[in-house]
Amino acid sequence: MTRDARGDDSRATTHDDSDEEALSWGPVGSDTSYLETPVDDTPAAASDSDDDDELPEGVMSSTMLVVHGVFGAILLLFTIAWLKSIGNVAPSFDSGLASAMWTLGTWLAVAGPAIWFVGTILLTTSSRARVVSFVIGVVVLVPWPFLIGVLS
C-alpha cells in the first residue's frame, strides 16, 4: 500500500514517473550507438536490373551451397562404403610388391572421394565446371564392391 499526500491509504491507480522512465528509451542524444546519416534526396542513377541479382566476387549462391553439400555428403558416403568394403578383404600375395600395390590401392580407393571433392573445389572456378566435375566424380568413384556385395 502507498500513502498519498493526503495521508490516505490507497492503491496507486496512476503511473509513477519511475514507471514511465522504465518504459521509455531515454533521451535520444544519450545513445552513443545511434547514428544519424544525412538523407540523399537525389534520384538514383538508372541501372540494369541484371546488376541487382549479381553476387559479389567470391560469394556463392544458395543453390551452389546446396549442391556442394549434397555432393559432399554423397562422396563422404562413398568414402565410408569403400572403407567398409575394403576392410573385409585380406588377400595373400606371394610378392611384397603386389602386397604394397594392394595396400596403396585400398588407401587410394578410400581417400579418392575426399581427394576428388577437395580437388574440384580448389581447381575449378565456374559453377558449371564444378557441377560437371562433381557428377563425373560420383560416377567414377562408385564403391561397386560395397554396392554389389562381392567383397563384403
Describe the overall structure:
The protein is an all-alpha fold. The protein has a domain at 60-148. Helix content is 56%, strand content 3%. It is built from six helices and two strands, in the order ββαααααα. The protein has helices spanning 17-23, 49-53, 62-87, 96-123, 127-140, 144-148; strands at residues 2-3, 9-10. The chain has a two-stranded antiparallel ribbon. The termini are far apart. The model is unreliable at 46-51 (pLDDT under 50).
Spans of 5+ residues with little confidence (pLDDT < 50)? 46-51
How would the global form be characterised?
A: elongated
The H/E string reads EEHHHHHH
* SS strand fraction: under 5%
Number of helices: 6
* Helix content class: 55-70%
CA-atom Rg in angstroms: 34 Å
Strand order of the largest sheet: 1-2
Mean pLDDT level: 78
Strands, count: 2
Walk me through the topology.
Blueprint: E1 2-3, E2 9-10, H1 17-23, H2 49-53, H3 62-87, H4 96-123, H5 127-140, H6 144-148
Antiparallel strand pairs: 1-2
Helix pairs in contact: 3-4, 3-5, 4-5
Please name the defining characteristics of this protein.
two-stranded antiparallel sheet, 6 helices, 152 residues, mainly alpha
In short, what is this structure?
Keywords: Membrane, Transmembrane, Transmembrane helix. The protein has six helices and two strands; from the N terminus they run E-E-H-H-H-H-H-H.
